[in-house]
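#struct-pred
JK: can someone run the complex with coenzyme A? inputs below
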Amino acid sequence: VARARHPGPLMEIVRYEREHLAALLALAEDADLAASLVADPERANRALSAPGTVALVAVDDGQVLGFAYAITDGAFQAYLVLLIVAPAVRRRGVGRELVERSLAGSGAIRMDLLASEDAKPFYRALTDRGPWPGYRLHPPQ
Ligand SMILES: CC(C)(COP(=O)(O)OP(=O)(O)OC[C@H]1O[C@@H](n2cnc3c(N)ncnc32)[C@H](O)[C@@H]1OP(=O)(O)O)[C@@H](O)C(=O)NCCC(=O)NCCS
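RT: done, structure tokens with the ligand placed:
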């Protein structure tokens, strides 16, 4: 990612820490995404810190710009659970960098995900393979 497109020269990608939680949940809430994560912060912290979770945060001078959260078997398959970039810094390569670093950090050879309608152009830009149809299953009510 070209540095000039970064929202600030100090942007770095760091591993999720408990201190990031409030900012991450605020981003999720603003994006109207991940209601289950927002509903229970302690459960969210457990998920983001669990073994097999790769949770990365883009920060610039202490400010959270976005985050990605994936789970992985560490060998073949990772799954991207959630990715959100703050509206003010979109289209500057933050999302792409979070995805690339998540896959690299997962130890897996590929990463799958479910894309919202709005995010389809972003994911299409990141791969020339697919899309593959996806399904989300829930326990019976
Ligand atoms: C999807 C999202 C994470 C993308 O983050 P981002 O930092 O803006 O993405 P990038 O700047 O890395 O984009 C990389 C490429 O993807 C494509 N792209 C990204 N957003 C796009 C859009 N809205 N329309 C068309 N293409 C888009 C472009 O090709 C872009 O490269 P370019 O800017 O050089 O043209 C961000 O828009 C977001 O947080 N959306 C709301 C939450 C969401 O939908 N998350 C995903 C579902 S879990």
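RT: quick notes.
Helices lie at 21-30, 35-39, 41-49, 94-106, 120-126.
Residues 4 and 92 are 9 Å apart (CA to CA).
JK: thanks, will look after standup
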